[in-house]
Design goal:
By secondary structure, this protein is an alpha/beta fold. The protein has helices at 27-39, 56-65, 88-101, 118-125, 128-137, 152-161, 184-193, 214-223, 229-238, 253-264, 271-284, 308-321, 325-336, 351-355, 362-373; strands at residues 11-14, 20-21, 24-25, 44-46, 74-80, 106-114, 141-148, 167-171, 198-201, 243-248.
């Protein structure tokens, strides 16, 4: 069954960074956000087995599946390679996902974070592509694809080997378009040339493209003073042909309102606006930052409890804004409250690096962070 790009919502609701209250998902706020999103005529929800430490799929069940007709929305989730240790784990995880989400099927189902090395090898080892097509034949999956964090060479090989794949989810934003590690632009070109629909993740690069320096924000405001900084990043992606849906991991009703305004009054980028983004990108790339998107895959297995994305956030803030007081206070608060181990506590076990979609040298970066923050 082919996907009609014209019928898919351009803005997808990513359930990866849901609002929190008392260290739990704020379900009342999530329900209000779901209602606002659905009321705007949008209906693509993206979750995963591991999001919110396993609570995201259940949140989708409570806030969405139990409150709206099942045929009124699309629900996507993912099979994680790192949670599988035998072939039987495929069905165990899948059945658990159905139960969590209170549903009989998933509209879109993905192999999670396919990349060079262990993840790709695990999906091959347990024959997950054929397994996914079997689930589709059973009516348990409507569309089958994968999310991707690997090299262009691996992407082309997988697409050659698996023509049954209907869509691919990739990280893409204007900052990563020429990133030599992420290679957003090259991945986009490969998929677009093959007419494979794309779901886009990290359009604002984990929030990095929302919190710019005053100098860079001023460049955007000079061209569109009424538009939010986030809207520039979203419009960059939405203006590309072949994009099916753009995921935004919205954490508040304010973010939801801003994104709904961007897409319900959508305007493709003008040539002048493209030039402005090119100018901003060039300046950004001259300021070295840690390219962490705060996916938090690294934190669950850290034996020292280091909140690695938050540590890197403090470091990037120091670099971007050339200040130390606020980021150091932020970091000290994390450590003193017990929300994070100190960067210096890293025992260099490598668990974090083995699951990082951005392939960051986390051990080395934590050593540098410790020198700046401890």
């Amino acid at each position: 069954m082919s996907i009609n790009l014209n019928e898919m919502p351009k803005l997808g609701f990513g359930l990866m960074r849901l609002p929190q209250k008392d260290d739990a998902i704020d379900m009342a706020q999530v329900c209000r956000m779901v209602d606002a999103y659905m009321a705007a005529g949008l209906n693509y929800f993206d979750t995963a087995y591991v999001y919110h430490k396993g609570k995201s799929e259940s949140a989708a069940g409570e806030a969405l599946v139990k409150r709206y007709p099942r045929d009124s929305f699309y629900l996507a989730t993912k099979l994680p390679a790192w949670e599988m240790h035998c072939a039987e784990d495929r069905d165990r995880i899948f059945n658990e996902q159905l139960a969590r989400a209170c549903t009989d099927y998933f509209d879109f189902y993905l192999l999670h974070s396919v990349e060079d090395g262990s993840n790709a090898e695990t999906y091959d080892k347990y024959d997950c592509f054929n397994w996914g097509m079997q689930k589709k034949a059973e009516g348990k999956i409507r569309h089958f694809g994968f999310s991707f964090h690997g090299s262009p060479e691996l992407l082309e090989r997988l697409l050659d080997q698996h023509p049954e794949v209907e869509f691919v989810q990739i990280q893409l934003n204007y900052a990563d378009w020429t990133n030599p590690v992420v290679q957003s632009g090259r991945l986009y070109e490969i998929l677009h040339a093959r007419n494979i629909p794309m779901v886009i993740m990290e359009p604002v690069k984990g929030g990095i493209l929302v919190s710019l320096t005053p100098e860079l924000e001023a460049k955007f405001k000079a061209v569109r003073p009424e538009s939010s900084i986030a809207s520039w990043a979203l419009r960059f992606v939405a203006s590309l042909p072949g994009v099916m849906t753009i995921l935004s991991g919205m954490s508040s009703e304010e973010q939801m309102a801003d994104n709904l305004h961007t897409f319900t009054h959508f305007e493709p980028l003008t040539e002048k606006e493209r030039e402005t983004i090119d100018e901003v990108r060039a300046i950004m790339l001259n300021v070295p930052q840690i390219g962490c998107t705060a996916c938090r895959y690294c934190t669950d297995g850290c034996p020292m409890g280091i909140a690695i994305p938050d540590v890197f956030k403090a470091v990037n803030t120091m670099k971007l804004y050339n200040e130390t007081f606020r980021p150091k206070n932020f970091y000290k608060g994390l450590v003193s409250s017990g929300k994070s181990g100190a960067a210096s506590a890293c025992i260099q076990c490598g668990q974090c690096e083995s699951v990082c979609p951005q392939h960051l040298p986390i051990i080395q970066l934590l050593q540098e962070a410790s020198g700046m923050l401890d």
